[in-house]
Amino acid sequence: MEQQAGAGRILVVDDDPAVRDVVRRYLERSGYRVDLAADGETALRSFAASAPDLVVLDLMLPGIGGLEVCRRFRADGAVPVVMLTALGEESDRVLGLELGADDYVVKPFSPRELVLRVGSVLRRARAAPPPASESLRDGALRVDVGARRCTLDGTELSLTSREFDLLVYLLRNPGRAFSRAELLEAVWGWSFGDHSTVTVHMRRLREKIEPDPARPQRIITVWGVGYRYDPVDGTGAPWT
């Protein structure tokens, strides 16, 4: 298997020893260092001790559940998280994305696909930061891209890493309609994946930047296509 450039340390959290072993072997073949945890408590201790570059996290864990573990990971920083979920756990999967998880893989899964997802998420997380001086605005919405800060009416918004990236991409391309597949590739770096990931993040972003998320003024649904960002200041151009 092709070795990943700049491979780092991965924490794999799953209560099934067979799954842990398979995932470990495939990740190690791609050059990653791998730590293993069978439950939420052990995962939190390992996370604090080893500072992994990415976490592969099963949602169904004994003791402290996967969603709570994900929440605590995200509270401690921006470590990327790839969730493992069963086919029927759609509500938990959506909640995990809302907590800030970067991707998910449904069981039973292809270990090769998981390695590809891990590599894709890490590449996005390690992408070179934008120029420190870049800023974007739309009316009372202000985005300092270099500092990764966003304010609305002077109040700083709490955006997940992916919500921030999605907002920046939309602000840089006002007035253009994008399909979910285009946004998935441009913002997540995936050429494949579940388009509901985009839907969930758009809904969360609307809740944070729209006065009335049910009647959005900025993030517009283009039926049969996807989404478009309409600037409220009416310029139709990036604001720098």
UniProtKB/TrEMBL annotation:
Record PTM 4-aspartylphosphate, positions in chain: D58
DNA-binding region: 133-231
Stretches assigned to the Response regulatory domain: 9-122
Keyword terms of this UniProt record: DNA-binding, Phosphoprotein, Transcription, Transcription regulation, Two-component regulatory system
One GO BP: regulation of DNA-templated transcription
Gene Ontology CC terms, in alphabetical order: cytosol; protein-DNA complex
Domain OmpR/PhoB-type, first and last residues per copy: 133-231
Superkingdom field: Bacteria
Cross-referenced CDD domains: trans_reg_C
Residue ranges crossing the lipid bilayer per the database entry: none
Protein name: DNA-binding response OmpR family regulator
